[in-house]
Write a structure and sequence with these properties.
This protein is an alpha+beta fold. Helix content is about 45%, strand content about 20%. The protein has helices spanning about 80-95, 110-125, 140-155, 160-165, 175-185, 195-200, 205-215, 220-235, 245-250, 255-270, 270-280; strands spanning about 1-5, 10-15, 20-25, 30-35, 40-45, 45-50, 55-60, 65-70, 75-80, 105-110.
């Protein structure tokens, strides 16, 4: 077993050399099991599922789980703490949610949004072999955790799905202004879109629609542009013998230097290193 943990989200790579039967007591979290090799038979909450690389099994809180695994098989096991997934949903909807969320017993991973979600989870799995992965950097971890949780909620049916995917009402200008001010005050803060929605006092979807209507960009795109502005200003004032581009980029919330450099060049027409050299 290999595991990567991002707060309430845990992704594990499990391998079984021999056939295995597992019985688990009542769960206190949401689990998704995605076989990558071989098959897994699962029984949970009155449902029986045969999971394989194209079908994931899903287990909700409050019921025991029985699974039978093939020999020479492997799977990705995703665990999401109950409170975290329900809070993520509440943030997306902009109102309290009474769980549990009735996720389906099986997910078709062969196409559509669920397939895209499975690729996101595999990205986390691929980082397991790198002890110094940027995925564990707080700025990246928060974004990825939220993406995995909201992606699951958006890609599978449940009792809140129609409300979650229906038309959104734009947040009012005053709420959008609060978020803009918060971004200007602390652009280096590891904001997630849920954090910004909480500042606005709206749902995530209302915040996004309000930004589209009143600002002309998504909240996270606006945050990135503000961070790029701060980096540019800092580089222009800095001594190239005393600071590096990486130090300045990290200071203003950029963890992935390759993507930062590309975004900077797209915004200012030159690489950040040139701006720093010209300051000297």
């Amino acid at each position: 077993m290999e595991v990567i943990q991002l707060g309430p989200l845990t992704v594990g790579q499990l391998s079984y050399a021999s056939p295995m039967i597992l019985t688990m007591a009542e769960l206190d979290a949401y689990h998704v099991s995605m076989p990558t090799t071989g098959r897994m038979q699962a029984r949970h909450a009155g449902h029986e599922v045969m999971a394989d690389p194209s079908t994931a099994a899903v287990f909700g809180p409050g019921k025991p789980v029985y699974t039978r695994h093939d020999g020479n098989s492997a799977e990705l096991a995703i665990k999401i703490e109950r409170a975290a997934l329900e809070q993520e949903l509440a943030g997306l909807l902009g109102r309290p949610v009474e769980g549990p969320i009735a996720l389906p017993p099986a997910i078709d991973l062969s196409s559509g949004p669920s397939h895209a979600w499975s690729r996101l989870v595999r990205l986390l799995r691929d980082e397991l072999e790198y002890p110094e992965t940027l995925i564990c950097h707080p700025l990246i971890a928060e974004q990825l955790r939220s993406s995995v949780l909201s992606g699951l909620l958006l890609s599978v049916p449940h009792q809140f799905h129609a409300e979650l995917t229906g038309p959104a009402v734009a947040g009012p200008p005053r709420a959008i202004r609060r978020v803009v001010d918060a971004i200007h005050d602390e652009p280096e803060r590891a904001f997630t879109v849920a954090d910004l929605a909480a500042i606005a006092g709206t749902s995530v979807r209302s915040l996004q629609e309000g930004f589209r209507r009143h600002v002309g960009a998504t909240p996270m795109a606006y945050l990135q542009q503000e961070r790029l502005t701060r980096v540019h200003e800092t580089l222009r004032r800095s001594d190239p013998l005393r600071v590096t581009v990486a130090t300045v980029a990290h200071r203003w919330g950029f963890a992935h230097l390759g993507r930062f450099a590309s975004a900077y060049r797209g915004r200012f027409g030159v690489p950040p290193s040139e701006t720093l050299r010209s300051a000297g």
